[in-house]
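queue> holo job accepted (zinc ion)
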Amino acid sequence: MKISEQLLQKYAELMVRTGANVQPGQIVQLAVSVEQYEFAAMVIEACYKAGAKKVNVDWLSDVQSRLNFQYAEQEVLARVLPWEEEKMKQMVEDLPVRIYIESDDPDAMNGIDPGKITAVAQSRTKVLKPYRNAIDGKYQWLIAAYPSEKWAKKCFPDSPDALDRLWDAVLRTVRVQQDNDPVAEWKKHTDFIEKKAAWLNAQGFSSLKYHSDNGTDFTVSLIPEARWEGAGATNPVNQVFYIPNMPTEEIFTSPMAGACEGTLVAVKPLSWNSQLIEDFSITFEQGKAVSCKAAKGQKLLEQMLQMDEGAAMLGEVALVPKESPVNQCGFLFYNTLFDENACCHCAVGMGFKEVLPGGDDLTVEQAKEKGINDSLIHVDFMIGADDLSIDGIRPDGTSEPIFRNGTWA
Ligand code: ZN
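queue> job finished
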């Protein structure tokens, strides 16, 4: 790998200082693949240099996960052990900063029964969800990526320099270059997103209307008091500004759960539970997915939409212009962190209560009453066709073009 240590250092520091924005005295919970132990050391050191009190590491391995699913019984994998629960209880108390570095092989779970994976996720999440709800919105977090050989091979199967190409793309999308100041670049970028979000919030749209020649014809109602957000968030516990996703290009909100009509046609494959769903569409009636069609992964898509009641309803609508650096890379990353930042998307499943005023203090039940969807899952899928138009409709019936031909009108 030709990538210089200096560039990696820049990236690690960007994650810690600008992304997660680790503050003196904070505990950090880092999740990273065992394969990236050298980069993990850079991140750990950057955390300590930022003043972290302690850095805990969850070492991940998609090879190990695969072997578990291949050989261990479903009931065994589905059980949350007492120590795992104790760990979550500790997190509720400590509210550590969480940094998650992705480098998974998109094909890691190929051939594993998707029913087994969803069943295991379902029972584990049932036990862990109360803890997740208790910390939700109260801590700084960051998801970023570190390319692995297998991930690169998936993106560029025939290329001898696949890893270099993936690195090049990743560093471009996170605005880390040899001769630039990534911190200044991110400031400019987040300012632009905040300006667009402020415009949307000032319009008071009550619904959005989507149209594209590929068959997308869709209307979704918005929650009157819900806000459009993007790029950064503020930890309400300590008022620290952080950027939870690197890269990030989207401006998003949670729509009114159970209030949408029509069909959304995906423009990119979806990688869910490490398996692919391709060429698909979802049709909604009275806010719920009533049918879906997929050229590949039909059963998986059906299972996904049936995970629970909320899995068939929308939790997010997001605007991303087609000129986004991720889209300009021109290939599929097979990873939602990147692919969701390529173009406009929606997500089925859990919504974001933080988009409501005072939302951080609402319980899941209270947020649900206001229209924020609740589910064990949150899955983004891309609908930003090159000709996509989106109109914002106000309560008095007047409308305003938001997107034309896949970008800001
Ligand atoms: Zn999104």
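queue> The first strand starts at residue 27 and ends at 33.
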